[in-house]
Amino acid sequence: RTPDAPPSPKHPTATDRVATTRNNQGRRPPANNTREKQIMSKFVFIYHAPMPPAEAAPPSPEQMEAVMGEWNAWAGKVGDGMVDFGTPLAGGVRVTTDDTSPSTREVAGYSIIEANDLDAALALAKNHPHLNMPGGCEIEVHESLAIPGE
């Protein structure tokens, strides 16, 4: 879109996304109540593993079902904040103005979520099943910032 074009309803900007707060019982307030709105931020979770998924030994169907069950349970905790569940990644290439070379750090996948703040995003990352995978897996959490001038 052009810089002076209005935001598209199909592609809202980060500041267009809002969430209503929940009362202390975890339920949304009735529609006739005044709702307090809070801007949500997007966070990109970058999953690192010592070996890319494509190079790992293929799991048995039972192992795959168990792992996906854990990931889906985590996604359920994220709830409406799940923007993009993500996919496994492989074959990263580092690009500079002079050259291309293989990535020096294996990125195994990504997810994009919305959360109230960095602390909320980190709490979700600390309970992520990726951290329980063998070999010392890690998660980087990056906040997605608004594009300057928008």
Describe this structure in words.
This protein is α+β, with helices and mostly antiparallel strands and 150 residues long. The protein is built from two helices and eight strands, in the order E-E-E-H-E-E-E-E-H-E. The strands form three sheets. Strands 4-7-3-8 form a four-stranded antiparallel beta sheet. The protein has a two-stranded antiparallel ribbon with strand order 1-2. Strand 5 and strand 6 form a beta hairpin. 11% of the residues are buried. Residues 1-35 have low confidence and may be disordered.
Architecture blueprint of SSEs:
Layout: E1 18-20, E2 37-39, E3 41-48, H1 61-78, E4 82-84, E5 93-95, E6 100-102, E7 107-115, H2 118-126, E8 138-144
Antiparallel strand pairs: 1-2, 3-7, 3-8, 4-7, 5-6
Our measurement of the CA-to-CA distance between the termini, rounded to an integer number of angstroms, reads 11 Å
Mean pLDDT: 79
Oligomer: single chain
Shape: flat
Q: In this structure, how is the largest beta sheet organized?
A: 4 strands, antiparallel
- Over all CA atoms, what is the radius of gyration? 19 Å
- Poorly predicted ranges (pLDDT <50, ≥5 residues)? 1-35
Count the strands? Answer: 8
The neighbouring-strand order within the major sheet is: 4-7-3-8
* Helix/strand class: alpha+beta
β-sheet strand percentage = 25-35%
Reading the helices and strands in chain order gives: EEEHEEEEHE
Q: Fraction of residues in helices?
A: 10-25%
What's the number of helices? 2
